[in-house]
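Write out this protein's structure.
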Amino acid sequence: MTTTKATRSIPKGHSENPPKLYSYPKYWAECFGTAPFLPMSKQEMEELGWDSCDIIIVTADAYVDHPSFGMAVVGRLLEAQGFRVGIISQPEWDSSEAFTVLGKPNLFFGITGGNMDSLINRYTADLRMRSDDAYTPNAEPGKRPDRSVIVYSQRCREAYYDTPIVIGGIEASLRRIAQYDYWSNKVRRSILVDANADILLFGNAERALAELAHQLANGKTVEELWDLRGSALIANEIPNNWTEIDSTRIDWPAKIDKIPNPYDFHNKQNVEKTTNTDSASPVKIIPLPLQRKENFDPKLSYIRLPSFNKVINDAALYAHASRVLHQEANPYNGKALVQKHGTQDVWVNPPPIPLETDEMDWVFDLPYQRKPHPSYGNARIPAYDMIKTSVNIMRGCFGGCTFCSITEHEGRIIQSRSEDSIIREIEKIRDQVPGFTGTISDLGGPTANMYKLNCKSPTIQKSCKRLSCVYPTICKHLNTDHSPTTQLYRRARSVPGVKRVAVASGLRYDLALKDPEYIQELVTHHVGGYLKIAPEHSEDKTLSKMMKPGISAYDEFKILFDKFSKQAGKEQYLIPYFIAAHPGCNAEDMMNLSLWLKQHDFKPDQVQTFYPSPMALATAMYYSEKNPLEKVRYKSEKLNVCKELDQRRLQKAFLRYHDEKNWPLLRKALKELGRSDLIGTGEKHLIPPDSSSEKRVGKKRSHKKSSRGRNRS
């Protein structure tokens, strides 16, 4: 960033009252009208009468013009602002040629890794390569590079070196500061640095994107937009008149003296130099423990995180940095964060102000075709097939589960659409989606039952720093009235041509317990025999590291579920999901979970192993073996973390205790745990004793392995 200190003294972009998305004056290119599909070729551009694109979106997904696909939302949003938007979808990345097919954009390249992180898309939790890609025509694998955002950015820079590059989407969003990378088993730099991009937009970035596009169109530079909410940039200078809260360490001395201000000089000559260089006041530095004792303007302050060089060498400092980032996630009180990367600072602005209901409606009412681009012909895109008749009713999640990335990406404040907007979309699905059978496959979002649930007090919400509104208990200030959701379900079912409305999104069952009428409505009309919910574990010690409620909440929900199913004359079942190898969970915890599963006659088929996704709190636990839910200290309790493959396989085997392939491994583990009493053929036993047939199978497998070994040698 080459801006001067004087231009960076007032944070205009931090306003809590941003303009409405639909209120911007249209860019001159609005005269070209609305494109049936955003063009992916020069021929399509010519048919639209375009000589160039103002903005080109590069995405690692197939282009599906549907509001569940990020590139479509971003593209239609910018089109509605009057810009000409083109799309380069899943380009060949071995050279820059594929990135020039639409020519040079007038304003910028917008780069996204797609709806999924490219590495999670390609590799399982055991780091095995997946055989398909749901976001690619015919599920063909290998159509996107690992770390797509970085690779695409480099190729765009090669193609047009002087064109601004804007990165965003979930892959960039979760890598905005130094982050542990599970796939390389090391801490990597901010993706902003590795991608050599000009600016990163995190979260659902409609606000930042609209503002950025109009400002660039008006002649501003990216550097001049340093204070744009929901963005991160490289800062070569720190703004004047600001206060730095020094959070670069975790163990401070008992008596803390003020840190000397580096701009204060006792030498008269130096004072004159400082004064003549810039008349504005220099940065004031406050140690983290003293911030409540000092007087400063919180709107003109930022937190300095431990540098990249520190967090790669000190896992406890990494956990501390993760804790600070999550504590500053409230858009109404979160501070800017700064992290040194070599000689540069990564400056992360506060999160964007959530969209209001009318703005959410406007975004979802844009002219989506609701189907894939015609260039794919009859190719099947599995992700589209899964969501083509589903409706997203809200955004965000205040659950704060430590292993999940939704809260980090979309925020804790729920953003809901109006009932009318949702009904309009159901009618569009009925009228536009080929082969519609009358079933809405899902009416939900990140969660099924957080629609219109927000803090009762706007004042409290703006000052709150809780990581979750429902853990360790449901906050008394949280509105838990599900009646808007119940009313929405009833109205959706009454739309002509709609025979059934399913609810397939995850259900926060501890929250649903606050409104039994909602549970009755859900169970009676919207469960098709099975309802998937996620208690994740049975043991409080592990659940506390997940920020999930105790298993008793599941038991309470099941009682109501069974009761209302019986009243409706339906035979229905709960399908619970559980996670193995979560940080803080040991073999004994998994054994107890296995016993709970057997007691409830659950025999899980598909099971999950903890996947350390970037920026998640549980990932910080995995890497550091510290608990960032509490104040981090070097002497803090060391968490049990399964990093070895055999440990992860054992915990997964406990979830599938009924699979005889796992019995040898489980017998050994039970003996080591001193629980040989669980091996037997009775009801109290978990697995049967060894049998001669198993021994023969084991010997045969061992012989095959040794034979393969001899053949390789």
